[in-house]
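Action item from last week, closing it out:
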Amino acid sequence: MFDWARSAGLPMLGGHDLYVYHRDASVRAHFWPAGQAARNPDEKYAVDATAPAPSTAHKTIVILPGFTEFCEKYSAEVLHFHEKGYHVLIIDWPGQGQSGHFGRHPLAVHCTDFDHHLSALDAVVSAVGLDEHELVLFGHSMGGHLALRYAAWRSYRVASVILSAPMMAPPVMPVWLIRLASYLLGGLGLARSHPPFHRVLSLDWVRHYRPENVLTRYPKGYEDQFVWFDDAPELRRSGPTIGWVSAAYQSCALYTLNPDWLAALDVPVLAFVPGDERVVFAPATDSNLPHIRNLERIVFDGARHELTRELPEVTDALWHHVDLFLARLDTAYSYEIDDN
């Protein structure tokens, strides 16, 4: 498996897959413990309840992918964190990757509420044995939205949050109109279908870099993500269902568009924001992120939505800031231990 990806020089996930059953469906995640040599990425593992828990001597990075994404797409990010000495956990959200499929169209991403995603993440964290660990959440786009929600829900477990182009609000406004339309269409039995007028483009068309694309200015960063589908076409998703749209707008209205909720977050947050954002609603990001009290916000002028696949000068700067942020957290943690 992944012969095309290997031939293209893409890094492989180095730990092991695990599957847990949640809400009568399988949820797939991938875990790479700190210090463990890379395993055969073609091997799959069930959860082993007798396996020893990961050492708390190492912090754990939890990568939360964005909409339609999957574990393999983040193999370079997983490798970066693992080489820095962290445990790394990444999840295929319900309805994405290898975590099942719930939409009518084989490529549609469907869910009924984002609470399903959060409880699935909770189940995976427990299955791996990370309940007593301090987690650092790294969330992109929808994953950034869910990272903030999980940090509020499990505040005792989350040490910090790193956001990449977070979805504070989806792209189409106003919120009330989209919520009303999705409610009415769902009432007609269309919740598991794509929205009207949605077109699923062929893989042959979307995989080729075009300068006007909304994701990145870097051709290699754009095209590499599609190589995974040559080996595992089942990983591909394209477009939300009406149910997903309803769930996303409800979650954003209640949480990331809520200044009081954001101000109550009590966790350090490092947020990377693209200057040329076209995927999520940029004005919502600009107006709502500052409500987070312990926020470090870095804007990359001209960059687009997928910051870790942007031009090398952007990705180099991003990882430099990430490493500094994590080093400061480790220093602060060391001081706390010494004081005790």
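Closing note: The first strand starts at residue 16 and ends at 22.
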